[in-house]
Design a protein that fits this description.
Radius of gyration: 19 Å
Distance between the termini: 67 Å
Helix content: 25-40%
Shape: elongated
Number of domains: 1
Largest sheet: 2 strands, parallel
Order of helices and strands: HEHE
Structural class: alpha+beta
Number of helices: 2
Strand content: 15-25%
Strand order of the largest sheet: 1-2
Amino acid sequence: MPPRDNRLTQLRKRAVRQPRTHMLWVHHRDTPADTQAKRDRLIAEGRAHPDDTFVHIRWKRPDET
């Protein structure tokens, strides 16, 4: 039977957080500052961490050229 992890080891394992990936829908007219503000807003709300990966998805409406 393998040895049981002690309480400290369990807490350390729980504290390790894997980086997540977040999709940022960015309008094609947004400036880099707008995109950075969206990223910072997610971090400030606690929905993301600075070490997470942010994927910028550019879009525009079909009626825009």
